[in-house]
Amino acid sequence: MSEHAHRLTVPKLVPEVPGGRTLAVSRVALLALTIAFAGATIAGVELSLRTQAFVYLFGMVALNLPHGGFEHFNNLRRRTVTFQSRYVALYLTSIAGFITLLFVAPIVGLALAISVAVAKGGHGGLHVMDVTYGTDHLRSKPQRALAALVRGGAVMAVPIFFFPETFHTFSAIMVDIFEPGGLAAVSPYFDLTRWLIGGGFGALLVAHLSLGYLQAAGTGSYVADAAETLLLVVYFAVVPVVVAVGLYFPLWYSARQVARTTAVDSEPAESTSGEGVLAILDSDDTRLVALGAWGVLIAGSVATFGLAGLLWTLAPQPLGGESLAIGLVAFWSIFISIIALPHVIIGSWYDRDRGIWYVP
């Protein structure tokens, strides 16, 4: 038996690491959905686009949105007023910039929205690996970047290749929100782009798995990474894209960030106590803590849906000319991308010492 064969171990569904049970939940959820939809495809059963839209909205609004708010809330606790003010100012500035881009060049804005989903899924997942089952098979920064690109790329590249008609339809609707018929100029090239993206992603996938195999140290990190990466690829290849994206973020991304939070048991060194606009949450008075938590929840909800209402008002065609359910999927996809851009750039890359994906 080869040296590498000795290094490879069978991955456990429930890994014996901090947050392992939550990791197992994410794995089981995607595996079950993949099997269910594969069976439905074989049986000739197909969900209508309207039904898929309702599943997406339930997953992205009811299940996933609260977690995104929690990530920022948790990150801004025990920070100075100066940092909190700068953080919020940069956040709002990037939102304004993204909205402006969507009105000026909606196709470029759509490309940025897709890139945001890739960056969020990839880099967020990389930090989960760091603190749970490890990343000792990723020996260099380029290899880590490749791992993030492949994991995040599965969210968009795989559906583009396997569900091109649906992906193109919703892309057109999202552009129509800001410029009706705006995607028509590039639509003839979509089939070529599909094959380029699919082939490019396939090459990156093979490179990631091969390099990881060569660098495997026998700790099980490579096997876990490879198994999860392939699960993501198969999931997005089998599950219809609207359902797949709508349930990926709550059942995989958010669940695994909970696992990361569970695994991180140390407070960041730069944390402060009793400072900042969220200091009430560190009070010894449980009534004040409850009142503060309620206030934060209300303020976050008002800000989020206030921004959505503003975008709805400004957009020439907020539903992209489609029916309510399908139009809302397109609108929410664009809106969530707008607030996800600073989520990644400000919440993590700017705040390198701590950030929403904090790993000590």
Write up this protein.
This protein has 360 residues and is mostly helical. The chain has one domain (3-8, 18-350). 74% of the residues lie in helices and 0% in strands. The protein has 12 helices and no strands. The protein has helices at 3-7, 20-43, 49-76, 81-104, 106-131, 141-162, 164-176, 190-215, 221-238, 241-263, 286-314, 324-350. Mean pLDDT is 89; it is low at 1-6. The chain crosses the membrane at residues 28-47, 90-119, 145-164, 195-214, 226-249, 291-312, 324-350. Its EC number is 1.13.11.63. It is found in: Cell membrane. Catalyzes the cleavage of beta-carotene at its central double bond (15,15') to yield two molecules of all-trans-retinal.
Determine the strand fraction and express it as a percent band: under 5%
Distance between the termini: 38 Å
Q: Could you tell me the mean pLDDT?
A: 89
Give the beta-strand count.
0
Element pattern in H and E: HHHHHHHHHHHH
Main sheet record = none
Continuous helix count: 12
Helix percent band: over 70%
- What are the low-pLDDT stretches, counting only 5+ consecutive residues below 50? 1-6
Quaternary structure classification: single chain
Total tally of structural domains = 1
Task: Specify Rg, calculated over alpha carbons.
Answer: 21 Å
The outline comes out as: globular
Structural class by secondary-structure content: mainly alpha
